[in-house]
Amino acid sequence: MAHPIPLHGTSMHDGVAARLRAMVFDRELAAGDYIDEKALAVRWQISRTPLREALKVLAAEGLVTMKLRRGAYVTEVSERDLAEVYHLLSLLESDAAAVVAQDASDAEIAELVALHQKLERSVDDRDAFFAANEGFHFRLLEIAGNRWRNQMVADLRRVMKLYRHHSLFRQGRLQASLKEHRKIMAALKARNAPLAQQLMQQHFAQGREAAAARS
Q1: Which residue, 10, 13, 74, 157, is the most exposed by fewest CB within 10 angstroms?
Q2: Do 166 and 210 contact (CB within 8 A), yes or no?
Q3: Could you tell me the pTM of the whole model?
Q4: Phi and psi of 19, rounded to 5°?
């Protein structure tokens, strides 16, 4: 698989981290896989120093697990890990939904409407739906305007992507997720903060159940 992300420059380890992250999310490096530093350094024609720095970055993000005297491995996400991630995402993103319903400008709500419409158009293409769904959620978080919450959610969503039975893989889950999004969007447009918060919590609960059903 080609990895066009440039490696050479003032922040080579950032490029290496981006390339490794892409390999993980593309399942070229699957959960539990050993990350062969020596082989990658030869393949990419770089020293092992930026590679090690990049692995530290991914370890901080939860994507890589460093094992004493054994090296780096792609993190394996357990059922318990997944439940904990969904629980935290539900708390953080439902709170953001309430803030947006209450405080967002009309123009910001219109942005979310446009992103939701993109989601509607993507329901027959899983990869496009993934991208549109992530775009909607991250824009909602940006509008809510808490950078600490945004960072926590970004880290948690990266870990969630590692789970081999992602909730959206389940038959019919894309359509169900879209229906949940419609209700959330209606609550946001109605400026109903308690309802938006409740519906976002339900959205994550349904996603958690769908993921667990594939285990």
Answers
A1: 10
A2: no
A3: 0.80
A4: -70, -45
* pLDDT tens digits, 49-93: 999 999 999 999 989 999 988 999 999 988 898 899 999 999 999
* Nearest-angstrom CA–CA distance, 211 and 205: 10
| pLDDT tens figures, 157-181 | 988 888 755 566 666 788 999 999 9
Report whether 163 contacts 77 (CB < 8 A).
yes
Helix (H, G, I), strand (E, B) or coil at 162: helix
Q: Strand, coil or helix: what is 75?
A: coil
201: closest CA among 69, 93, 41?
93
Long-range contacts of 148-154 (CB under 8 A, 24+ apart): 149/92, 149/95, 149/96, 152/88, 152/92, 153/89, 153/92, 153/93
